[in-house]
């Protein structure tokens, strides 16, 4: 493997990590309080940072969308072991899982910039891995 491919792998990993960490820092979801809030209501309202969504998002109602996280991690590990094709499929699955947020999010809640950075990290991983895969295949098919 040439140094340019290694550099591309490192650069992609750094870009994805930067987007993902930024998503964890930024607010991801807004849950405004209802106008007729009951006195005993202890539901946390307001903006939720991405790290909170990551740590507590594996609840039954958000599990499908949250599963994008282990799919990304699995894809990244496969990418590091040069299993690019299957890594692309895990990345695509992560994107689809993340997009399911729109199906399961209650209408009263809204997605904020942290969600879009998270989605961006998944998209960057998938298409970056696809690009690395394409470059490696084209170089492997050239006679030396």
Structural features, described:
By secondary structure, this protein is mainly alpha-helical. It has one domain. The protein has helices spanning 3-25, 50-56, 63-66, 68-80, 84-99, 101-104, 113-141; strands at 27-31, 46-49, 110-111. It has a three-stranded antiparallel beta sheet with strand order 2-1-3. The longest helix has 29 residues, at 113-141. The chain is elongated.
Core attributes:
single chain; 144 residues; mainly alpha; 3 strands; 67% helix
Question: Brief overview, please?
Answer:
This protein has 7 helices and 3 strands; from the N terminus they run αββαααααβα.
Give the distance, in angstroms, between the N- and C-terminal Cα atoms.
13 Å
Number of domains: 1
* Largest sheet entry: 3 strands, antiparallel
- Rg is 18 Å
Strand order of the largest sheet: 2-1-3
SS class: mainly alpha
How many beta-strand elements?
A: 3
State the low-pLDDT regions, or none: none
Please work out how many helical segments DSSP would assign: 7
Helix content: 55-70%
Strand content: 5-15%
* Series of H and E elements: HEEHHHHHEH
Could you say which overall geometry the principal axes of the C-alpha atoms support? elongated
Please give the structural blueprint:
Blueprint: H1 3-25, E1 27-31, E2 46-49, H2 50-56, H3 63-66, H4 68-80, H5 84-99, H6 101-104, E3 110-111, H7 113-141
Antiparallel strand pairs: 1-2, 1-3
Helix pairs in contact: 1-7, 4-5, 5-7
């Amino acid at each position: 493997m040439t140094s340019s491919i290694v550099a591309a792998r490192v650069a992609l990993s750094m870009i994805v990590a930067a987007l993902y960490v930024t998503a964890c820092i930024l607010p991801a979801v807004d849950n405004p309080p209802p106008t007729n809030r009951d006195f005993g209501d202890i539901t946390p309202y307001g903006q939720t940072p991405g790290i909170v969504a990551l740590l507590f998002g594996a609840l039954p109602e958000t599990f499908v969308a949250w599963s994008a996280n282990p799919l990304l991690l699995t894809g990244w590990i496969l990418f590091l072991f040069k299993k690019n094709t299957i890594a692309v499929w895990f990345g695509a699955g992560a994107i689809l899982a993340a997009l399911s947020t729109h199906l399961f999010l209650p209408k009263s809640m809204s997605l904020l910039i942290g969600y879009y950075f998270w989605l961006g990290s998944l998209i960057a991983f998938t298409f970056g891995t696809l690009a690395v895969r394409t470059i490696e295949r084209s170089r492997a098919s050239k006679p030396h």
